[in-house]
Fold this sequence. Notes:
The protein is α/β, with parallel strands linked by helices.
Amino acid sequence: xxxxxxxxxxxxxxxxxxxxxxxxxxxxxxxxxxxxxxxxxxxxxxxxxxxxxxxxxxxxxxxxxxxxxxxxxxxxxxxxxxxxxxxxxxxxxxxxxxxxxxxxxxxxxxxxx
Length: 113
């Protein structure tokens, strides 16, 4: 299962729900990969402090998602467009458009949050 998350980490429930979905699928032993793209890449940017929004840091959650059996891919182009250096992200494997295309082509199912 491929879970696409192009949404920003805060402001809507989309990213949180995508994260929960991925964890749930992995707990059922479904091969699950999360792809962070567009504003979704902000989830793995260090130094998040969403306390003013009364939320916990999604960066911490995504930093440990692979420990729960979920693969994490991060769009290189999305990082570049936002000025985020690849070597600064908290987690995930950075892939380019071609790599994302290959991953999507091999997915048994795709859902977007």
